[in-house]
Design goal:
Shape: globular
CATH class of the largest domain: Alpha Beta
Number of domains: 2
Bound molecules: pyridoxal-5'-phosphate
CATH superfamily of the largest domain: Type I PLP-dependent aspartate aminotransferase-like (Major domain)
Helix content: 25-40%
Structural class: alpha/beta
């Protein structure tokens, strides 16, 4: 009997093979510079983030949650729902948090874990992750990071940084699908889940249900629930990233951000984030105050109004993924120039200069 699937022409009808699954986990380990196979999450990145919160939260556990934007705020609510005692370090959304603030908060509250968002596309800010993790390690805390909007836009060496939980998705910098994502978990992280009687089991929110076999043993079957088409699209996206080179993908995002900043400054418009050392490389946020022309209600190309409470305060330039390029940034800045009725040409020159053209 032939093992050949009948619907050869329709890739969607052929289940994900073990070798495709192993390719995918291998690509993700490489992307994150970790020796531990990340868990594939059968859904959008937000599912992996909610699963991390559900898995670590428990009555009797005090968790320090950093809020520098809406995703951090949501994470805190999920921790509370799980019965954890949540202590928050919250800063205005046009700032990021400092490692010193985190160190002081840890000393004061003595939590067992720390959670934060590495970079925020919504606010255009990027937290100093390496320093924050260093501060947390001094107190031996379990660390949890939402890196959905950082992966591919800045460094994320998971093992070198010793971070225990990292959620990633491909729909931002990696120009991949949004229907499947991943969570990287250290051995310490697994222990933290297993020692939690309140961690979900037999649930779509359960990370423990997805735990790979003991280290070293190859899986004998593909874990259930992984969306086949999305997994294949992720394999392709990660292959493209490897082909371009992760370093180069990051450099392209850095250039996109630097050129967007140069472009808005040449227009006489200010960035919304306060400190230029902590700009996200995926989005540039633009101050609306004093520029009534920038009060748009709908996105125009990659120029988008602020989300939620940030609507009317900032505009976002979404220069990530395939849009982390000179052409997209130039088009966005021409859009802004039109909105404020100013000559775009000095900005276009400034953008070209950043791209070395
Ligand atoms: C985009 C993003 C996510 C995923 O959220 P979706 O809105 O579901 O794409 C999670 N965290 C952060 C920081 C993000 O930027």
């Amino acid at each position: 009997m032939s093992q050949e699937p009948k619907n050869r022409g329709f890739a969607g009808f052929v289940p994900l093979s073990l070798s495709e699954f192993e390719t995918l986990t291998g690509q993700l380990s490489k992307l994150l510079s970790t020796q531990y196979a990340p868990v594939i999450i059968p859904g959008e990145a937000i599912l992996g983030i909610e699963a991390m919160a559900a898995g670590i939260a428990s009555p009797g556990r005090k968790i320090l949650n950093v809020v520098t934007g809406p995703y951090g705020s949501l994470f805190g609510k999920w921790l509370e729902r799980g019965g954890a005692e949540v202590v928050q370090v919250e800063v205005p959304f046009d700032e990021v948090v400092t490692a010193d603030e985190i160190g002081r908060a840890i000393e004061r509250h003595k939590p067992c874990a720390l959670s934060f968002v590495q970079a925020e596309v919504v606010t255009g800010g990027s937290n100093p992750a390496e320093d924050i993790l260093k501060a947390a390690r001094e107190f031996n805390l379990i660390t949890v990071m939402d890196s959905v909007s950082a992966v591919g836009g800045e460094a994320l060496p998971v093992d070198a940084w010793g971070v225990d939980f990292v959620a990633v998705g491909a729909q931002k910098a990696l120009a991949g699908p949004n229907g499947v994502s991943a969570v990287s978990i250290s051995p310490r992280g697994w222990d933290f889940l297993e020692s939690n009687a309140h961690a979900p089991r037999n649930s779509i929110l359960s990370l423990l249900d997805l735990k790979p076999n003991e280290q070293g043993t190859a899986p004998v079957r593909v874990p259930p629930n992984i969306p086949t088409l999305e997994a294949r699209a992720l394999i392709s996206a990660l292959a493209r990233v490897e082909e371009e080179g992760l370093e180069q993908v990051i450099r392209r995002h850095e250039r996109a951000a630097a050129s967007a900043i140069a472009g808005i400054q040449a227009l006489g418009i200010a960035p919304w984030q306060k400190d230029s050392r902590y700009y996200s490389t995926l989005t540039t946020t633009v101050q609306i105050a004093g520029e009534p022309g920038l009060r748009i209600g709908q996105p125009i190309g990659i120029v988008a109004p602020g989300d939620g409470e940030l609507f009317g305060q900032l505009l976002r330039i979404n220069h990530f993924g395939a849009n982390a390029c000179r052409e997209s940034v130039e088009e966005a800045i021409r859009t802004l120039a039109g909105l404020v009725n100013r000559d775009p040409e000095p900005s276009v020159e400034a953008i070209k200069k950043v791209w070395g053209e």
